[in-house]
Amino acid sequence: MGAPGTWQQEQISLAYLSAVATRAGVTTASWNVDKDAVDITLKRRGLLVEFQMKCSYSPTLLGDGETYAYDLDVRAYDILRDRERSAAGYLGLVVVPRDVDEWLVHDEESLLMRCTGYYARIQNCPHVSNEGTTRIHVPKKQRIDSIGLDNVFTYAYDRLFVNQGEEGVQ
User: Fold this and answer.
1) Alpha-carbon gap, residue 80 to 52, rounded angstroms
2) What global pTM score does this model have?
3) Torsion-angle region of 12 (φ positive above 0: left; ψ -120 to 50: alpha; else: beta)
4) What is the reported pLDDT for 41?
C-alpha cells in the first residue's frame, strides 16, 4: 500500500493510546471535533488527562539518540499548556513504520501493532513567541505504556492536590 494518509496516522495513534489505556485499566473518551486541541481524554479514579495525538513514520531524532522532536502548532501548544485547564495536557507521539502494511500483523490468533508511543507534558509550559509551530522534545524514556500512564496520572494528582503545577515540559 505504501505511505499512509494523514487520516490513517490519526486513527492508529488513537487506537494505540486506547489499547494501552485499556490494558492499564484506564477509560477513554474520544472527541469527534478537535477544536480544543484534544483528541482523547483518559480517566482513572476521577482524575482526567488529555492528549493531542500525533503519528509519524519519520520523526526527527535528536543527537542524543534518545529524544524525538515534534513541531506542534502553537495554537494547540497554548491550549494544552494553559494553567486553567482542569485536565493536564499532553502531546502523544506514535511512531510507525513507513509502510502502512507493516503497522498491523493480523492472523487468526492475534493482532500485533508494530508501533510505539511516547508522551510529553505540555501542561504549564512557558509561553513561546513563535507564530507557527514550536518544537517539543519527546523523550523515548517517556513511553505510552502502563508505567507511563501511571506517571501521567501521578502528575495530574500532584498538580491538583500537591504542587499546583510546575513549569516546563516533562
Assistant:
1) 8
2) 0.91
3) alpha
4) 96
Cell numbers found for residue 75: 495554537
DSSP summary character for residue 28: E
Q: What is the Cα–Cα distance from 94 to 119, expressed in whole angstroms?
A: 9
How is the beta sheet containing 27-30 ordered, strand by strand? 27-30, 40-44, 47-56, 88-95, 116-121
Return the C-alpha cell found at 10: 490519526
Give the amino acid at 92: G
Which residue reads 516546563 in cell numbers?
168
Closest by CA to 8, choosing from 72, 55, 45, is: 55
Q: Which helix (H) or strand (E) covers residue 61, if one does?
A: strand 60-61
Partners of 111 in beta bridges: 106
The answer to whether the Cα torsion of 10, 15, 20, 21 is positive or negative is positive
Looking at the chain, how many residues does it have? 170
pLDDT category of residue 34 using cuts at 50, 70 and 90 = confident
Residue (of 73, 100, 94) closest to 1 by Cα position: 100
Amino acid (one-letter) located at 57:
Y
Instruction: Evaluate if residue 166 carries a pLDDT over 60.
Output: no
